[in-house]
Amino acid sequence: MSEISNQHKTVLANLSAASKRSGCPAADLVAVSKVQPDTRIAEMLKTGQRIFGENRVQEAQTRWGETFADHRKGLELRLIGPLQSNKAADAAALFDVIETVDREKLLRALVKAVGDDGHMPRLYVQVNTGEEAQKSGVLPGDLPGFLKTMRENYGLEPEGLMCIPPMGEA
Predict the structure, then answer these.
(1) Residues 6+ away with beta carbon under 8 Å from 40
(2) How many CA atoms lie within 13 A of 141 on its CB side?
(3) What is the per-residue pLDDT for 70?
(4) What is the pLDDT, as a whole number, of residue 19?
(5) In the chain, at which end, N or C, are there fewer CB atoms within 10 A of the end residue's CB?
(6) Residues of the chain with confidence (pLDDT) below 50
(7) What is the CA radius of gyration of the chain?
């Protein structure tokens, strides 16, 4: 058994144990594949892992559109890094989930990118819970207004929130 396979089993066991302790259902494991070499991705695919997080649209296009294109069916790809509005069309075409929606300009670009096929990835609003200047995301006080704009002006319903707390804060 490979190192990655062993680590994958350990992480899944830890998630299951935490779920039992807390009484909350276990979340699906997102394997963050950004900047990982192809050999490690191939090993992770062998474990049965089916949800992958990528940081950059262009890197993900190469990885999942070319290198591992034959594995794409049955996978869920999540964009977990910042998204520039000029890459919205590429992101909407490739990703199943975009976790970094944080401004109205991006909402406009995503709606425009969907076009005729109607495919819109599931969306998470990125929230900068610590209101730190160096981090992107909607500030907590602005969140109700942003959600209202998202729903009323763009007809988009977020699946959830992706929160970025300050370092060392739960």
Answers:
(1) 4
(2) 2
(3) 94
(4) 83
(5) C
(6) none
(7) 17
Q: Which two tokens stand for residue 100?
A: 């970094």
Q: Torsions phi, psi of 162, nearest 5?
A: -120, 105
| Nearest Cα to Cα of residue 57 among 38, 71, 43, 78 | 78
CA gap 59, 34 in Å, rounded: 8
Per-residue confidence (pLDDT) for residue 35, from 0 to 100 = 86
* 3-state helix vs strand vs coil in the chain, percent to 5: 50, 15, 35
Whole-angstrom CA distances from 63 to 28, 46, 152, 169 are 22, 16, 36, 33
The single residue listed with the structure tokens 């602005």 is: 142
Distance, CA of 88 to chain centre: 14
Q: Note the pLDDT of residue 82.
A: 94
Pairwise CA distance, residues 13 & 138, whole Å = 33
Tell me the C-alpha distance between 170 and 50, whole Å.
27
* pTM of model > 0.85: yes
pLDDT recorded at residue 29 = 85
CB contact at 8 A, 122 and 101: no
